């Protein structure tokens, strides 16, 4: 990912333009471009740390720290009162991981390596967890309209209660993942960076991601007004791609290297973390920020989530993949992206 380092010039550029009262549209573009190399640095440092672990722990580390950028962006969006943008970014992050990234991984990995195999039992568990995640996010959305007629506060209480359940099942999934004995692949690579260097890069990239996230969110409303796009499309497509670029790159690159189990651990693991940990965490964080967020998604988001999860589950259940399955997932993502663009 060394080619990404050239984009670091956009980090100071975004800061300078923002604090010299430059055009909000230019600020938004520069901020997005600046977050990309920072998230890539974060991902590369994480991969160096993951090289000292097995594929599952490495995938967990990549997914966890890869979601840091999106979590930071969402926190600033909540503070700014852009709750629809946050909900859309949660949806877009799940769609991006299980359709776009898994699709690209299967496509490019299949072209280079032919049929690729991975642990079927773990894939089945992850598919079940994805379906559970959609149920957890969907129930508050479906029940909220009727509940709101009787007591508006109950909608918030429902979101908080469901968030606790989702975080609990996420913790149990982690416990199972690290204690289950199965025949998954184990790839070990020698780290190129020292542990100290990896940690320093992680900390610095996170700090600058937070800074650029604040700048990016501050330019969202002028961009929506001047470009004629909706906050919804911005959250579904643009923000997740910018915030999740680290695990996106890692997931695709590991698939090309024929490390499909690690690739799926990164992409599917990231989706599960967004749905079962990041989204519930944002619900609680929103209370501290003074703008309560509820897990109430609109019908288009729910339809997209169901379509994405079912497609990914059907592809992964047999424990092997090929390039055509990747193309199929990419087709679903493109169809949904087009629908959201014209919505």
What is the compact description of this entry?
This protein has 343 residues and is mainly α. The protein has 14 helices and two strands. The chain has a two-stranded antiparallel sheet with strand order 1-2.
Q: What characteristics describe this protein?
A:
single chain; 14 helices; mainly alpha; 2 strands; globular; two-stranded antiparallel sheet; 80% helix; 343 residues
Give the topology, please.
Elements: H1 10-19, H2 24-50, H3 55-66, H4 68-79, H5 83-113, E1 116-117, H6 120-150, H7 152-179, H8 195-218, H9 220-227, H10 231-243, H11 245-256, H12 260-289, H13 299-316, E2 320-321, H14 323-342
Antiparallel strand pairs: 1-2
Characterize the largest beta sheet: strand count, sense, and whether it forms a barrel: 2 strands, antiparallel
Evaluate the radius of gyration: 19 Å
- Strand order within the widest beta sheet: 1-2
- The total strand number stands at 2
Helix content: over 70%
Distinct helical segment count: 14
The end-to-end span amounts to 35 Å
One letter per element, helices H and strands E, the order comes to HHHHHEHHHHHHHHEH
Name the quaternary structure: single chain
Proportion of residues in extended strands: under 5%
Class computed from helices, strands and strand pairing: mainly alpha
Task: Describe the protein's architecture and organization.
This protein is mainly α and 343 residues long. Helix content is 80%, strand content 1%. The mean pLDDT is 84.
């Amino acid at each position: 990912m060394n080619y990404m380092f050239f984009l670091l010039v956009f980090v100071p550029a975004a800061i300078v333009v923002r604090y010299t009262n430059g055009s909000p549209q230019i600020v938004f573009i520069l901020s997005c471009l600046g977050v990309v190399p920072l998230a890539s640095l974060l991902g590369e440092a994480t991969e160096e740390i993951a090289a000292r672990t097995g594929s599952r722990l490495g995938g967990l580390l990549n997914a966890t720290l890869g979601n840091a950028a999106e979590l930071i962006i969402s926190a600033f969006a909540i503070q700014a009162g852009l709750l629809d943008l946050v909900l859309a970014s949660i949806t877009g992050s799940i769609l991006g991981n299980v359709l776009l990234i898994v699709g690209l991984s299967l496509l490019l990995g299949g072209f280079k390596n032919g049929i690729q195999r991975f642990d079927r039992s773990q894939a089945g568990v992850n598919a079940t967890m994805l379906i559970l995640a959609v149920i957890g996010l969907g129930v508050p959305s479906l029940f909220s309209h009727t509940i709101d007629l009787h007591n508006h506060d109950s909608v918030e209480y429902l979101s908080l209660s469901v968030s606790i359940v989702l975080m609990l099942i996420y913790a149990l999934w982690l416990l199972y993942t690290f204690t289950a004995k199965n025949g998954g692949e184990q790839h070990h690579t020698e780290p190129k960076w020292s542990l100290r260097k990896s940690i320093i890069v992680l900390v610095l990239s996170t700090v600058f991601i937070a800074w650029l996230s604040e700048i990016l969110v501050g330019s969202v409303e002028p961009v929506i007004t001047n470009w004629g796009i909706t906050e919804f499309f911005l959250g579904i497509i643009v923000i997740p791609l910018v915030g999740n670029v680290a695990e996106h790159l890692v997931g695709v690159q590991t698939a090309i290297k024929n490390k499909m189990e690690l690739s799926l651990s990164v992409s599917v693991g990231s989706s599960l973390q967004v749905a079962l940990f990041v989204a519930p965490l944002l619900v609680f964080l929103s209370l501290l920020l003074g703008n309560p967020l509820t897990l109430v998604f609109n019908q288009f988001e729910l339809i997209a989530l169901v379509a994405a999860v079912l497609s990914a589950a059907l592809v992964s259940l047999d424990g092997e993949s090929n390039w055509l399955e990747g193309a199929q997932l990419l087709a679903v993502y493109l169809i949904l992206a087009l629908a959201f663009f014209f919505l």
